[in-house]
Fold these 4 entries.
Entry 1:
Amino acid sequence: MRAEKVRSSTTSARKTSSSKAVKAAQAQPKTDPLYVIFEQHLFHFQESDSDRKTFILAIVSDYLSYLRKKNITVPRSLEQPIVEELATQVNVMLVKKIYGCLSIADYQNNLPGSVKKRARTRYSKLAVG
């Protein structure tokens, strides 16, 4: 009888600790690396003479570099369609993010410093560049 109580308490302790880990993982949703890279470029944009296409391609390039560092390969035959799809997604993110602002610089002027710092911290955790 005593051995059964010890086993059941050990089993319930394992269930409790594993359920806590699951709840903790669910509480902190993982942010998409593409979005993290996008925010980093947007909040720390420096080239005022750069056009939208160049800005978007820089983000896509950083994202592909990130994928390579994670040993995720993109077949050459699919690279161009993937780049086009990613560029479309980044363009949509850009339009939604700076809605109501005339330029990226205009958007940056209205940002608090804490937002820029948080974006830089997330970006550094990705170890992209």
Entry 2:
Amino acid sequence: MFSSNDKISSRQIKRLLVFDLFGAASLLLPSQLAKSGDGIGVWSILAGMAFAGIYLWMLHTCCCRMPSDYMEYLKTGWGGFLARLLYLCYACLSIVTCAWAAKLLAELMCGTLLDNREFPWALLVVLLLALYGAAAGMEARARVYELLFWVLVIPLVILLLLCVRQVQVMQWFPLLGDGDAISWSFFWSGTWQCFAAFLPLTFVLFLIPHVQEPKKTCRAAAGATLLDGIALVVLYLILLGIFGSGALAKEEYPVITLMGMVKIPGDFIKRLDAVMVGGWFFTLYALIGTTLYYGVVIMRRALTGWEAYKKAGGIGKQVWFLALAVAAYGIAYWFYLSPQAEVRAMRMFYLAGVPFAVLVPAVSLFLCKGEAERRQRAQAVAEMVKAGLEDEQGVFSAGKQQVK
């Protein structure tokens, strides 16, 4: 029997994070990295994964010092007002990411299965499904993706194995690019983009209250990071070996194009690319549901007190989910109508959003540590004083007994 305590296991954490990290990254990163030329994009993925490991270590350190949740931890160093302001920034970043991912999935569906005129309805369906999944809670979402994990992974692995025979290894070289300044500038920009693809790891900070074994949370996140990084390297090498850097850079969604090129023995599936869109539907849907869920959780925690946050009923939570889903729809549709607005939002994300997600826990390691040490010293002094008073009372009582 399943439990119903809004708690998830470390295995479920790992599988949720694999879906959150892989979907958008596998669709967009290969064509972006191919602009650097030849195989240098592989090093960008590996460097981004290394920086993600350092980032995860910072998150793990913060999690180990949390008294109850991330808000209380931030209050010890930043103060109550700044902690709530930082939470609002996290919530806004999460909702904008939800809108961007929903717009990406709706465009993918319209480009492969529907007509572009149906984008508003496709976007509406995507966000309604995300609203339903997010409102069901963390535990329900974790169960669904635990069941779907191997159902989606095994067909993808088989299809990639079928593509290996078409790979031309010579198109990987030179692995270090052309050696000029332009290639290395692409390397660093690609590394920044790859690291940004691992930023859903930030939600580990808000996941601790929903974990059965909090000590295993970051270990599960590290496993998901390693698995996702290896998958991205393998996928990029296959795409680069088949398309070449020039053609790969011009593809919008090269992995979907690749799925359409795969020939299954027997030729019993005519539109394999349309079938495989279903796989990326679930990975992008996982990211949309995750960002919507955490956007609501973080926003509620920032704007309400701790007791009100814990005692909020089902109707109150549904109103929050509905309001932020409507906001996400508006932002996503704005991105669709104004591509320049989406470009500016992406630029703002890379220039401000990524540094924000990195610097807040990094600075908190110093601010909140000092405050925690001061509290521990004050508690130790109070215990010593209390023990001294108890000793004095004991001596006084013994003296009275002797006098009697």
Entry 3:
Amino acid sequence: MSFGLYVPSYKRAKTTTTYKLLQDYKYVVRASEEADYRAAGIESLWVVEDDKINSMIKVINYIHDNAPEDIICTIDDDIKYMIYRLDKNVQLTDPETITAELERIGQLMLDLDIGYGCVDASRVPYGYTSEFVFTGLSGGLRWVNKKCFKSRFLEEIGYCCDVDVVLHELLVNRIILKPKYLCTCGGTDTNEGGNSEKTRADQLVSIEMMKQKWGKYYDFNQKSNTPYVRVKR
């Protein structure tokens, strides 16, 4: 079985850092920016027509639809390092070690017939409760087992599309794989190429759509700006 590692990137040719942490990756970039990324020294590119990947949701779906590998891993382009989150945090920067960990999770998903995997959206030390859990929110590193994955990132959901995928996978497959011991450490949505165009109004519309779609299984705390997946394990 085959494993593919992809880094969607937009307007970050000069600032992206993720490639320094990986082996055997491909950056997925818009055709209009190909020269910028090559000039920055990133030669491993998958160049796609702009209109096919002109949003984060579009580019993730495009990778899932067109990448040839059986296990697809996508990771944000602004990762500076990763950590092992155990009794204490241990920083990871070695590409061989990090890539082996990503492959390890892909192999587990293949062995267990799990469709979707993701790291935690938060890396606070007290968030570590066990090596793996089987529900929760989705961070900036995701795995898809194409044979089993039954969901899709929906543009109409927008802001909350990653939580929507988690809930749908829990509905149709009853499980996702979430390594709690491995975390990404990157930038924020406000840096160049991020989702800084997201507005509070967009967020509220997406939250309301999620509540209508998922009812009691989804909640959002406005004060702490935290979503909740209310599905018992």
Entry 4:
Amino acid sequence: MEDFTQEEKMQQAMRLKHSRQLKGLSIEKFSELIGMSPSGYQKVECGRNSVSRKLLKNIWKQFRISPDYILLGERFEIDEIIINIDRCTDEDKMILFLYLHQYFVRKF
């Protein structure tokens, strides 16, 4: 992923850091969950190393953070919804789950 300018790489690093902080995770815990060493991840988050395809894939699998957001800063409506759900209390998440369950039971 070497086609990005240094400025773009720094923006990607800032989006990674922001995404990690939104999850309330330390560098150590975040890197563990995505299968990377803390020092290796920290180099990416600081902009010294580029974002790899493997890193993007692991972040998507673990946290559903869009590669388009990390690389380009583009968010889709579903990304915003997921972010907002993550910020909800467990009680609100349960209410949402029950609402969606009812919706799908009636629909199908």
